[in-house]
Amino acid sequence: MIVDGLHWGLPAVFAVSAGLSIGTALLVGLGSREVRPEVVPAGRTVELAFGALRSVLGDPAVRRIFAIFGTAFLAQQVARPYLPVVVGQVNGPVGEASAIGLVAGTAALAGALIAPIGGPLGDRIGFRPVLVAALVGGGITLGVMPFAPNVAALAIVALAFSAFYGVVSPMVFGLLATEVPPERRSQTLNLVYLPLYGAGVIGPTLGAVVVSAGISAPFLLGAAVFLAGAVGVALRLRGTPARSGEVRGDEVRPDEGHVDEIDANQRSAG
What is the 3-state secondary structure (H, E, C) of the chain? Predict the structure, then answer.
């Protein structure tokens, strides 16, 4: 709309983005209150940073969750730079900027609307099953994206992909909230974007390597990464024991057996 509708040119797009960033900074600085931890770490900043890194990555559960997050972001980053190219091929040169904005804007809107639904859905069904479904759906939609016959179909596929991808982050944060001990939760959340930095470098590089085979190659590779991540989470889901506090019908809690024994002794004594 800014480029083709208002004819302001591409610099206006960056100016609007800069204004939104400044507005966000003002909102955080003036409209939020910082909550300090009860125990403030003391020491050199570099030592504290490396200590937190060792502490967080030393936990196998955190490493697995970070790997899931990084895998999903890697799959998206492999194909993302080439979405405008696909739009240009499908739409043609007339109104190309508007078509790219339509596809990208529709996808972003879907992600923003679906992400808040992910949390309650994970609470009801389980974070890992929902995460598997999101990764599978993301892989399928990303794989068919370069084969969309027109801009409208491409926008619908991009919307579906963003809806699936938008569920991944809530599930990852839900897993961190439930599986990381409270004393290390703050450190872990501070480093939650660490795998995204690496994936943000590796993903476009992989895409640049495989795109020589065709514009659909980055999308197919990204889809394969999504599906591989889903398989990994599903296998982990099958091997995950019941959470502490959950008891099957044929099991007896240790404290319940102890109470039954006390009752039996009291009856025999009486």
Answer: CCCCCCCCCHHHHHHHHHHHHHHHHHHHHHHCCCCCCCCCCCCCHHHHHHHHHHHHHCCHHHHHHHHHHHHHHHHHHHHHHHHHHHHHHHHCCCCHHHHHHHHHHHHHHHHHHHHHHHHHHHHHHCHHHHHHHHHHHHHHHHHHHHHCCCHHHHHHHHHHHHHHHHHHHHHHHHHHHHHCCHHHHHHHHHCCCHHHHHHHHHHHHHHHHHHHHCCCHHHHHHHHHHHHHHHHHHHHHHCCCCCCCCCCCCCCCHHHHHHHHHHHHHHHHC
By C-alpha distance, which of 234, 210, 236 is closest to 223? 210
pLDDT tens-digit profile, the chain (270 residues): 666 667 677 788 788 889 989 998 998 888 877 776 666 667 777 777 777 788 777 888 888 889 999 999 999 999 999 999 999 888 887 777 788 888 887 777 777 777 778 778 888 888 999 999 999 999 999 999 999 999 889 989 998 999 899 899 889 988 888 888 877 777 788 888 888 888 999 999 999 999 999 999 999 999 999 999 999 888 876 655 444 333 333 333 444 444 444 444 444 544
- Identity (one letter) of the amino acid at 115? A
pTM score: 0.73
